[in-house]
Amino acid sequence: MPRWSQHQIILAERPRGIHLITDEVLRQLPEIYDLKIGLVHFFLQHTSASLAINERVDDDVRADLERHLNTLAPETGSYTHSYEGPDDMPGHIKAVLIGAEVTVPIANGRLSFGAWQGLYLCEHRNHGGRRRLIVTIHGEPI
């Protein structure tokens, strides 16, 4: 019989940038290892950070992504919303472009990422603080 579970994970505070969080998240989700087949849904409860799946091997990918996101939504833009500082509105724009949720299949107790993929927190604020991630897991036990 399929099982459901849901968790809130508090991610460690990180500086602005693209951060691999796969291992940090999986350490808090041991029931994934007991599922033959399923899905895990990750939802970030913030409007100035985002979630992505991307390459986990070459750090240059993360640096290039951050640089180009800053070109798309620079802090020096002419924004009306500026209440929380110059990095806030660009953070909102980047979060809308990337998104706040991803879903990953589970197969034989493992996330079914491609060979080069990992889960990323994209922190768009200089000091965004700790971020809350809601994780919903549904699957059939082994």
Give an account of the 3D structure.
This protein has 142 residues and is of the alpha+beta class. The chain has one domain (3-141): Jelly Rolls, CATH 2.60.120.460. Helix content is 21%, strand content 44%. It has helices spanning 22-26, 59-72, 88-98, and strands at residues 3-11, 15-20, 35-44, 49-55, 101-107, 110-111, 117-127, 131-141. The strands form two sheets. The chain has a five-stranded antiparallel sheet, with no helix packed on it. Strand 5 (101-107) and strand 6 form a beta hairpin. The longest helix is centred in the middle third of the chain and has 14 residues, at 59-72. The model has no long low-confidence stretch (mean pLDDT 96).
Short overview:
The chain has 3 helices and 8 strands. It has 142 residues and is of the alpha+beta class.
Helix content: 10-25%
Which CATH class? Mainly Beta
> Largest sheet, order of strands side by side?
1-8-3-5-6
Topology as H/E string? EEHEEHHEEEE
Q: Which structural class fits the helix and strand makeup?
A: alpha+beta
Topology-level CATH name: Jelly Rolls
Strand content: 35-45%
Q: What is the mean predicted local confidence, pLDDT?
A: 96
Number of helices: 3
| Count of discrete domains | 1
Radius of gyration: 16 Å
Largest sheet: 5 strands, antiparallel
Give the end-to-end Cα distance, rounded to a whole number of Å.
10 Å
CATH architecture: Sandwich
- Strand segment tally: 8
The CATH homology group name: YjbQ-like
Show unreliable segments: none
